[in-house]
Amino acid sequence: MMQTNSQTQSLFRTAAIFYGNDPSNYGNSNVRNIQKLVESCLFHSPKKEMTVSEISEFIRTNYLLDIDDSEITSIVLDPCYSDRYIQLTDLNVTQYTLSQKRRISIESTQTTKSLDSYIDEYTHMESLACEAKETIMQYLYGIFTSNLESFRKLFQLRKAASIAIDVNKDYSDSETKIINGFLLWDNEEKDQAVFNFASYALEFCMITNRRDSSNINEQLGLKEFYIDTNIVYRAIGLNGEDRKQRTLQLLEKLQATKCKLYISTEAKSELLVSLKDKFDKLRKNHNPAVKSKVFQEFVTYDDIYSAYHRWCVGRVNTSVDLFEANVLATFDDLRKKYMIETDGDCPFDRNTKDELLNKMASDIKSHSKRKTPSMALRDALNVLWVELKRLPNQISVFSAKHFLLSSDKGLRYWDIARNDGNSPRIVIHPSEWLSLILRYSHRTADDFKSFISFLTLRNNEAPMSNEELNIAISSIAEISEDIEVQKTTCENLLRISFNRTEKNLTESTLRDLAKVEAERELEKRLKQANAEKEQISEAYDTLADENSTLKKDISSQKIIAENRINELVLQNAKLQQDSSNSKQTNQAKIDELEKKLRRSEDERIRIQKKHERDESNRILRNWIIARCLIAAILGSAVVFYLLASKEGDWLYNIKAWINCREELATFVKDGLTAIFGLAALCIFPWIPLFKKIFSKSASLGSFD
User: Fold this and answer.
1) In the chain, how many domains are there?
2) Would 88 be classed as within a structural domain?
3) Facing residues of 226 across strands?
């Protein structure tokens, strides 16, 4: 393993050198790749000056690539790179080193992490043992070597790879969990690094075989792919939603490169028969009382059973017929959207190929432990169908147009092993073609995720298959619809199945076992319920005794309390009587005081009114006297004027003068009389007098 780790780390470094994180690094020519190796050698080697042979040896040791001295010499002496390399000659020994400018430029771009560092980061993050890193590296090494051999035979490269091939190793459940955990770790840089490493196999093949890969992009389109049923299962969502999305992205990429998609009538018929068989099994074991959430909790892999129960969640109508219609409609939509044509033109006569097909099926089955003879025979038929579709002159991957697209890794390994190098392989794994497409086309982070999804491992056989789990839960549901009972019974069944030597059970045996376990669980819960009932009964009796004692105590306390209450009632009655007597006495005193107060108030009001009346009378008398005096004076003056007759008096002279003037005399006589009369009337307060008389007469009596 240590040797493998050393080789893998060297491959990690080389892939990082070739690609880094710069998309422009994809699809470089061999010359450009060798130049990168030379520069990396001169940059990382402890010796700053190196001969061509030393450079070649460093590359061979650290990057596992065999580069001729002539290729290195042509690089370092190329006039186009004169600013990058400095030639030093001493004692007829010629050495080369990087220019200072180029060394600084390389230092500024040394940000790319190798895949090894991502593995270290993941194992540290998950607190995994050192063996976990070795497991991940071993798996990635296997991917590289299988891709190496796959590309070598795909492109018919005759030179054997200088790395041992280990393509079909079985991994334990714990190892599978570690590998899938690393691959599915949500880290875009890691995804790209894994893609670079897996794809580097192509570059490795081309360099070791002196072939240029820069023109491969021109040959990738216009292919015709026959899709295997496992691709259809993924595309319609029967192997999980994530695999569905990744497979659809692959089909979109194939469409973008103008590739045609087919499904043979044999494969389509086998698909529909297979689906019908699965729907019939679902229908046979369908029980509305089954809790789909329970199934989802114990399912270990995705298939039609997990798809059905995932579809059931949140639905009222969970009939298998409706689910079947939904799946078949999805398949029809898939064929229309991606223009998947049905090919009914079988290129051979089944009767004449039975022996060959049986031989191929036997060999295929030897590469997959899970595969049944009928499944292996179907694979053989699909492979032979595509193989005979090819024309005799289609002897390379560039000229060949027909391929079988399958996610079956065992079928791919069989195809690699049987290939004699005279024609390109038939079976193409999605990750294999994706690595070609993505290296020479536009890439996104989601594309790298799609690529990674095809590298994950399927878990080894679970204690119970999904079909068995579905049968078991359906049988349990006949006994109890309680979700907790179903859940606990499933846990017990899985534990029994895991510990059981004989794993394969008949359907009837499994049903009986499930019902027995369900009844046992119900009996257990009934015993627990009875025990709890007894405990409750005992507790009730104890409480009853305590209650009886408490009642006696309460009765005694009640008598004491009643006596005390009676005493308090008597005391309260006495206090109320005393309070009532006191209240009556106080009320009499209050009434007497109120009478005195009312009399005092009446006397105050009477005195106040008398004072007001006296004051009003005084004012009125004063006004009357004043105005009568004024009126008498004025009247006397008028009379005196009118009756004046003594000659020689000034008043008489004035009167005589006026009388000499008739008009004036008339005016003075009449006017003065009117003026003084009116003045007398105005001066005298008639109105206030009458108002006073009438207002006071009503409230105070007659006017004094």
Assistant:
1) 1
2) yes
3) 262, 404
Using alpha carbons, list the distances in angstroms from residue 55 to 15, 52, 77, 548: 18, 5, 14, 102
Enter the tokens of residue 401.
């147009």
CA distances (Å), origin 199, targets 141, 202, 431, 446, 477: 12, 6, 9, 17, 50
Q: In this structure, are residues 408 and 252 in contact, taking their beta carbons and an 8 Å threshold?
A: no
Closest CA to 74 of 18, 114, 35: 35
Angle made by CA atoms 73, 79, 83, in degrees to the nearest 5: 100
Kindly provide the residue ranges of all beta strands, DSSP E only, lying in 310-462, ordered along the sequence: 340-343, 402-405, 427-428
Residues in the chain predicted with pLDDT less than 70, given as ranges, are 1-7, 9-10, 13-30, 109-112, 146-169, 199-221, 300, 421, 437-464, 494-505, 637-651, 661-704
Q: Of 373, 374, 417, nearest to 153 (Cα)?
A: 417
With beta carbons less than 8 A apart as the criterion, state whether 658 and 665 touch. yes
In a domain, 573, yes or no: no
- The identity of residue 350, as a single letter, is R
Residue 424 within any structural domain of the chain: no
Task: Note the Cα 55 to chain centre separation in Å.
Answer: 53
Q: Domain range spanning residue 63?
A: 22-108
| Secondary structure element (H or E) that encloses residue 226, with its range | strand 224-227
Q: What is the CATH number of the domain that holds 84?
A: 1.10.10.10
Which ranges in 440-506 belong to alpha helices (H)?
445-453, 466-479, 483-499
The closest alpha carbon to 306, from 240, 214, 207, 383, belongs to 240
Query: With left for phi above 0 and alpha for psi between -120 and 50, is residue 97 left, alpha or beta?
Result: beta
Closest-CA residue to 623 (of 566, 683, 681): 683
Beta pairing class for 85-90 and 93-98: antiparallel
CA–CA separation, 230 and 427 (whole Å):
13
